[in-house]
TrEMBL record, chains A, B:
May play a role in DNA repair. It seems to be involved in an RecBC-independent recombinational process of DNA repair. It may act with RecF and RecO. HAMAP family: RecR. It comes from Zavarzinia compransoris. This is Recombination protein RecR. The lineage of its organism: Bacteria, Pseudomonadati, Pseudomonadota, Alphaproteobacteria, Rhodospirillales. Transmembrane segments: none annotated. Belongs to the RecR family. The keyword DNA repair applies. The gene is recR. Keywords: DNA damage, DNA recombination, DNA repair, Metal-binding, Zinc, Zinc-finger. PANTHER family: RECOMBINATION PROTEIN RECR.
Length: 204, 204
């Protein structure tokens, strides 16, 4: 009577309970997904079971940058065409993927694994900040802080910038401004103020 | 650059592509789900991989009613406490689960696997209607048509009612009316008209 429709504790019920714990899924969508999987047994369910087992077996965080990959170091760290002189610091692997999708960055990454948070008890040591400092030296000339524009993200960026000051590396941040395609009327005041302050000659 | 962030064709990319094909998931939510799975390797990813493999291996349609279960006949058909004299006809296993959750039905089921549809080329033979007719006789005294209140669902219900006419079995349908907790102001005219037409003495 509770969550699912099939026999409680059965294979199908267990599958639905686990699917319901994925982000964006609830009991109802998990039931729909389970039925879809079973109705597409060969084209969807079997490949998904195999992909999940393979990812479970093989995907690990890169020991250098924290990206997820089946090899260590990861594909980004291994790529000789990338500029090892620039490291982009991000909170999560999802953020790393977002920057890769933009196609605008060809350096390396450093995934913190979150942001500083006094409430959650997350300090510098939980965040791979010591590992970032250990990467300083030799070819590294710039650290780009690409943290979320939230209070916690910016607090973390300030902290890291302070740690890196005077160590012979340039520390930069993402620009604030109007999102491409954004309508001014719908923008918050802070973004609009930042975009005005950072205005540039229109020829650029 | 296309769908996902990780190395194209890699284990993680494949997992995301497959997750994105689940109903209610798109590329973005599939990426989030994959990251969530990896960050909860032991508590979520491993159990989900195991549940998927087990369901793939064991869950099959019941040869009698079309319900999904790890055993054949299914748990509903096997239950001796259920009334074998009443069979509820539903379009899908999801509908069967919905009726089971209501707790208001203690008979058996017959899952059609869809509804009649000239456009999609779905006729009576695609729908387990012959299998329903084969269940007539002996203890069966009532067939409840619990099809969706859509045009296709009701066309299918009419067709089945015509097939069952004069075969010594009562054919009934779900009542139309005001949903429990429903506000009249938000109800469509058809439902309101049906609820008025089927009005009952208020003592009932």
């Amino acid at each position: 009577m509770a969550l699912a429709g099939p026999e409680p504790g059965g294979a199908l019920d267990r599958l639905i309970q686990l699917l319901a714990r994925l982000p964006g899924f609830g009991p109802r969508s998990a039931r729909r997904a389970a039925l879809q999987l079973i109705s597409r047994r060969e084209s969807l369910m079997a490949p998904l079971a195999a992909a999940l087992a393979e990812a479970l077996d093989k995907v690990r965080p890169c020991s250098r940058c924290g990206n997820l990959d089946t090899m260590d170091p990861c594909a980004v760290c291994r790529d000789p065409a990338r500029d090892a002189g620039v490291v982009c610091v991000v909170e999560s692997v999802g953020d790393l993927w977002a920057i890769e999708r933009s196609g605008a960055f060809r350096g390396l990454y450093h995934v913190l694994g979150g942001h500083l948070s006094a409430i959650d008890g997350i300090g510098p040591d939980e965040l791979r900040i010591p590992a970032l400092i250990a990467r300083l030296g030799a070819p590294l000339r710039e650290v780009v802080l690409a943290l979320n524009a939230t209070v916690d993200g910016q607090t973390t960026a300030h902290y890291i910038a302070a740690q890196l000051a005077g160590r012979g590396v340039a520390v930069t941040r993402l620009a604030h401004g109007v999102p491409v395609g954004g309508e001014l009327d719908y923008l918050d005041d802070g973004t609009l103020a930042a975009a005005l302050k950072a205005r540039r000659p229109s020829a650029e």
